[in-house]
């Protein structure tokens, strides 16, 4: 069996991830307009559009990260998967469970918490398949005799801690936690903060892997700075959740220290990518132009998000901004500006490696157009949320309705820029979906054609 065929499970995950993001953005735009016009698509109430949007976008992050791992290990790292059948089973279980979750949301059947608002019984296949994924990963990595580069450690840590935090997120099912509101809130927000850290490990590991492949130099993934980022990220994963628990009793120094660690992690990640970019030759940038472009955008959004985070961490500003649209801007900057750009870089790196130059060269112009439309729209989207948050934070009247009227112009800009952001990413995603399909077809053809001795 060829390397292309072995990578098929990873390509399936990537293609499904592209669909998840495209659909998730549609529900996000619908939700944004429903916020302004409650009568808009009343049959899809905000109680449905929000979980649909959140679950699909979170699925996008995990699908592309998992797909990358399943693709890179056998195809480029010369590590045959411990079980190819397990990888395919993982995909089909993810697909069937995901469709069941979407069906529950659309029919109004809820039962979980925050990111996992579906009936808890649907978490069972996620638990089981994640265990299978972890076993497959670590059994595969047993064949690696040399010291692990940092991205192997990041991927492994993300896998282990997702299982831990996903388990913790379901402690509310135990009466001891569910029957005390403060106790449930503490566990819920702690687990979700750490859950974000687990997918950050998967995303940052993917970013460093793609960067080393574009530069054809594994040194950045074995440097002291890279492992410093890893250990800082590990600490942030375990303790950085503390700055999210403002609603429950905790010591101020714990929140402050957690915030410091979180921001330092962002800075080091940004510095690694920035240094890597300056080390590339012109031909390397041109050879992987789409992947390089998305990594470059992720780096810019790292520093933009870091600047915002540092400002809102100042106590005098935090009193005004916390709980406003500025918090949403910070979350969107991380999810779209950093995570999504990194994962798109991974997708287009795979496409560049697998397809002939003339095939993806034909799509370079529309992909570049989608890239600029998406990033410029995200800048407007990001700024509108910040201005709306400032307006809300500075409002000193007693009427919520009056406050909403004062920030309505910013929210209209937010909604419209959300549409153009979606269109820009849809252009990119359409070509990614189509080109991954061509890669899959070429893999099938490679297996079907008898090889001469």
Descriptive labels:
453 residues; mainly alpha; Cytochrome C Oxidase, Chain A; 17 helices; disordered N terminus
Give me the number of helical elements: 17
Helix content: over 70%
Overall number of strands: 0
Query: Mean pLDDT score, rounded?
Result: 83
CATH topology annotation of the domain at 288-453: Cytochrome C Oxidase, Chain A
* Beta strand %: under 5%
Question: Can you characterise this structure?
Answer:
The structure is a single chain. This protein has helices at 3-6, 8-36, 46-75, 84-106, 123-141, 150-168, 175-178, 181-215, 224-239, 252-279, 282-287, 289-313, 315-321, 325-354, 357-361, 364-394, 400-448. The model is unreliable at 1-7 and 446-453 (pLDDT under 50). The chain is globular, with a radius of gyration of 22 Å. The chain has 453 residues and is an all-alpha fold. Among the domains are: 1-143; 288-453, Cytochrome C Oxidase, Chain A. The chain contains 17 helices and no strands. Helix 12 runs antiparallel to helix 14 and helix 14 (325-354) runs parallel beside helix 17 (400-448).
